[in-house]
UniProtKB/TrEMBL annotation:
Name used for this protein in its record: Centromere protein N
Record key words, sorted: Centromere, Chromosome, Nucleus
Keyword Ubl conjugation annotated: no
InterPro entries in UniProt: CENP-NAC/CAD_complex, Chl4/mis15/CENP-N
Signal peptide feature range: none
Taxonomic placement: Eukaryota, Metazoa, Chordata, Craniata, Vertebrata
Coiled-coil annotated residue ranges, if any: none
GO annotations of cellular component type: chromosome, centromeric region; nucleoplasm
Gene Ontology BP terms: CENP-A containing chromatin assembly; chromosome segregation
Gene that encodes the chain: CENPN
Pfam families from the UniProt entry: CENP-N
Subcellular location(s) of the protein: Chromosome, Centromere; Nucleus
Family indicated by similarity: Belongs to the CENP-N/CHL4 family.
Organism: Homo sapiens (Human)
Amino acid sequence: MDETVAEFIKRTILKIPMNELTTILKAWDFLSENQLQTVNFRQRKESVVQHLIHLCEEKRASISDAALLDIIYMQFHQHQKVWEVFQMSKGPGEDVDLFDMKQFKNSFKKILQRALKNVTVSFRETEENAVWIRIAWGTQYTKPNQYKPTYVVYYSQTPYAFTSSSMLRRNTPLLGQ
């Protein structure tokens, strides 16, 4: 696991209140139940974080794994963001088609990656037929900033998408595509 991934996971875990930590880690489902049982959650948070980082290093966590943890944290704390609602529309004469989540993810990711060289897109599906999308924006010359992402929540079979306020306002029109 590279040190930027470790730092990203560390910062995310530090944001999580101790009383929610085990719940969020279980929802993340990256670390096994046995691994989580090795963690003493009664220690100081810094010690807990170090132990969790060590476990993530053993499993070779990727940026995608870290982004998924961040999405789960945001799902628990969605009230901390300002959300905008976008209504999507179909062109005249277009029928309502069946929703294919795999196709949606692939096309969404391709559109953003074609428009921007450096962008990280992560997805998480929920039981409510929603897909949470996390977008870390970069520029032509910089890597994606994992600490200032935009979140999009899309409920399949509805014409609405909810987006968190983006630090890079110029990228917001790309989400409408």
